Amino acid sequence: MAAARREHLRHLVWPALEEGKWVLCDRFSDSTFAYQGFGHELGVSFVETLNQLTMGNFQPDLTFIFQLSEEAGLARKKESLVSEDRYERFPEEFHRRVSKGYLALLEAESQRCVPLSAHTSIEVIADHIWRTLAERHFLSHLDPSTLS
Ligand SMILES: Nc1ncnc2c1ncn2[C@@H]1O[C@H](COP(=O)(O)OP(=O)(O)O)[C@@H](O)[C@H]1O
Ligand SMILES: Cc1cn([C@H]2C[C@H](O)[C@@H](COP(=O)(O)OP(=O)(O)O)O2)c(=O)[nH]c1=O
To answer: Domain Thymidylate kinase-like: where (predicted)?
Structure first.
């Protein structure tokens, strides 16, 4: 996973950022923090060392953490056409630890990581994301007060 992430960074992400493009990424190193660090209980310092080897001091500028109750998440997964992966068959305690990992991350990196309720509609969630980007001056041409 770490090798794949480094390849992804070197060949796609870093060159795109150099060109001034925006890069949008699902999961990324914070999932390693929550899943390997907490879920698999490998610990924070192990993940920090791994992340340092994989990407140096690089960090995303902004990370959204979508929060959803266990019940609602499982219900959505049942409706989804995508088959469940190995991790989704892990026991409940594993997922509780992963969830704790994300909460710890939100506390430790409150500037970069923004919690977002995923219980609302896709449109409301999208609006929340646009608003946050505008408030944090990522969209200099957009005035947050003009958003619905
Ligand atoms: N805000 C939402 N409201 C209702 N259903 C949603 C919402 N967001 C995602 N879904 C549905 O939930 C399922 C899983 O979402 P997805 O984003 O693929 O999760 P993951 O990346 O964790 O696998 C999909 O079927 C998707 O259509
Ligand atoms: C990115 C990442 C994912 N995972 C886990 C979480 C997922 O259950 C599984 C697959 O992730 P992924 O392929 O990103 O699928 P999805 O976002 O559709 O669930 O791997 C880790 O354990 N560590 C990581 O660093």
So the answer is: 2-129
